[in-house]
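Exercise: predict the fold of this chain.
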Amino acid sequence: MDRARHWDEVYGTRHLDELSWFERRPALSLDLIERLVPSRAAGIVDVGGGASSLVDELLAVGYADVTVLDISQAALDLACGRLGALEDRGGHAASGVRWVCGDVTTWEPGRRFDLWHDRAVFHFLVDPEDRARYRNVLVRALEPGGHAVVATFADDGPTTCSGLPVHRYGAEALAGELGPAFDLVEGRRELHTTPGGTIQPFTWVVLRCRQPNVKS
């Protein structure tokens, strides 16, 4: 399967507010980020951020070092256009955002971040080898002592999304899957209401990187 083509088609053929994961304001993500990295100079990467409004909210409260990584250029173009930064696609925009089109399982971070945010990417990695690659990138991308905020469908959540199978998790299972380099700081359950009115249970974990990272 060509992942990039699949997600380009999703974002190219449907309005944002028709997508099941759409949030007008990603309140839980923003609240966790502000609590974990209050410094507005903190380096943040939003994995699978695509067209999400999280980057808008982060900029609005003063964060100045934000990277948005997504496999879909169509999704990134929507966000870039919304923020008036299309001319800076692929580099540092005037807003302080770096837009990166790439697959998280093969991404080379090139630097370390204070916080890694992933809402609903990891649960699409149903192949154990893809999950292992994700873990390796995560460890290379985070500063020791940095935090990862990861959300997936809960144990009783949907089994598919956008025509693709997903892997569901409880908090302990998700923390365990992300590996021994991290301590589980917090786990919580969220009931997300889709634009169509369906309730989707999510599992969220906050992890702290507790061992020295390997070199990028």
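Check your answer against the key: The two ends are 28 Å apart (CA to CA).
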